[in-house]
């Protein structure tokens, strides 16, 4: 009996040894991954003076994070006012992805006081809206005293005021609720340049259009109606393009995408041009000239328009606006071509097959 009990005991012990040996051994704890910190040196671009040395900057830090650290040492230079140059650096770029070693040098330059783009756009648009209405209502000290607070007898003058006001109210609402602006700020000096252009040309146009001696278009109501239809058509087209561009961007995102036509017929201009919003804008200005100018009988020819119109301020505003928007459109078009290899080759910048 004792022998049997002893054998059973040794058998149980052997089974327990086998069970314990079959259990997986716990894995040794993983060694913590070593983080390689960066040393960032910020140097004044003009004087080459070392302004700041940031030690132990995390490799996942963005350029904006570095600007924020720099701002702590130099409170007068907030991030929007800083330009850090190694290559052309965007705020969202990550330090470890830049072509620099663990010791990086960035050259700082002061961009000057900044304003948000939204503020500049709103100021640009509110000014012409108010200035035009001052001339429309014939406020004192604008025309002869006998015309103070009088109303024009020509229907086209009232129609031009409605079109002008509608255009700028639309722009204000789009700035507030539609546009998603990639760039956060622009230099403060730009507001004086931009507002000077828009406000002065608005006053120049309004003076002649609302003048008591204003004469109606040569071809009468037919010319006025043609201009009005083109104006309204292009307003809807311009708004449709802005909505389509808005839908390409997520809130807060700066990622670019190729714009394509949607089910909205007004967006089909994307098949032919890169910036149809500018194309519609130019046509709006031409149509406003047709509504309010004398002897404008052609829409398609800029040379004919310039020679035939007698409303010099509107012609000037249209031509200068067209030149500026062409520069912007060409810049955007070349940016698309550079960034996307599969960008549609049929598209022009602003005028289909021409420009």
TrEMBL record:
One of its GO terms (biological process) is very long-chain fatty acid biosynthetic process. Residues 38-110 form the TECR-like N-terminal domain. Residues 21-30 have a biased composition (Basic residues). It is a multi-pass membrane protein. Keywords: Endoplasmic reticulum, Membrane, Oxidoreductase, Transmembrane, Transmembrane helix. It holds the Pfam family Steroid_dh. The keyword ATP-binding does not apply. GO terms for molecular function: oxidoreductase activity, acting on the CH-CH group of donors. The keyword Transmembrane helix applies. Residues 185-355 form the 3-oxo-5-alpha-steroid 4-dehydrogenase C-terminal domain. The chain crosses the membrane at residues 115-135, 191-209, 229-248, 286-308, 314-331. Coiled coil: none annotated. GO terms for cellular component: endoplasmic reticulum; membrane. InterPro entries: 3-oxo-5_a-steroid_4-DH_C, SRD5A/TECR, TECR-like_N. It comes from the Eukaryota. Gene3D superfamilies: Phosphatidylinositol 3-kinase Catalytic Subunit, Chain A, domain 1. Belongs to the steroid 5-alpha reductase family. This is Trans-2,3-enoyl-CoA reductase-like. It comes from Dissostichus eleginoides.
């Amino acid at each position: 009996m004792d022998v049997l009990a002893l054998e059973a005991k040794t058998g149980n012990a052997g089974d327990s040894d086998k069970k314990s040996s079959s259990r997986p051994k716990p894995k040794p704890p993983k060694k913590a991954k070593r983080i390689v910190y960066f040393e960032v040196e910020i140097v004044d671009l003009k004087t080459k003076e070392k302004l700041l040395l940031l030690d132990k900057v995390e490799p996942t830090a963005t350029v904006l994070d570095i600007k924020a650290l720099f701002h702590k040492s130099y409170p007068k230079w907030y991030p929007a006012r800083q330009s850090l140059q190694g290559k052309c650096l965007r705020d969202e770029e990550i330090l470890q992805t830049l072509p620099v070693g663990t010791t990086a040098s960035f050259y700082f330059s002061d961009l000057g006081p900044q304003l948000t783009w939204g503020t500049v756009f709103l100021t640009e648009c509110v000014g012409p809206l108010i200035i035009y209405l001052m001339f429309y209502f014939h406020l004192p000290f604008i025309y002869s005293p006998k015309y103070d607070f009088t109303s024009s007898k020509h229907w086209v003058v009232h129609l031009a005021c409605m079109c002008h006001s509608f255009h700028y109210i639309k722009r204000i609402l789009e700035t507030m609720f539609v546009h998603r602006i990639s760039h956060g700020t622009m230099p403060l000096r730009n507001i004086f340049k931009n507002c000077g252009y828009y406000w002065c040309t608005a006053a120049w146009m309004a003076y002649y259009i609302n003048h008591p001696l204003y004469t109606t278009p040569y071809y009468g109501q037919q010319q006025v109606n043609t201009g009005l239809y083109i104006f309204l058509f292009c307003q809807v087209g311009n708004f449709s393009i802005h909505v389509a561009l808005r839908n390409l961007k997520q809130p807060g995102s700066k990622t670019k995408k190729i714009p394509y036509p949607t089910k909205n017929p007004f967006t089909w201009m994307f098949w032919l041009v890169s910036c149809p919003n500018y194309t519609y804008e130019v046509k709006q200005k031409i149509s406003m000239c047709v509504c309010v100018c004398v002897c404008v009988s052609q829409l398609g020819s800029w040379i004919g328009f310039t020679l035939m119109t007698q409303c010099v301020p509107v012609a000037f505003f249209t031509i200068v606006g067209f030149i500026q928007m062409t520069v912007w459109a060409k810049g955007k078009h070349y940016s698309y071509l550079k960034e996307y290899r599969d960008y549609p080759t049929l598209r022009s910048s602003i005028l289909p097959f021409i420009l």
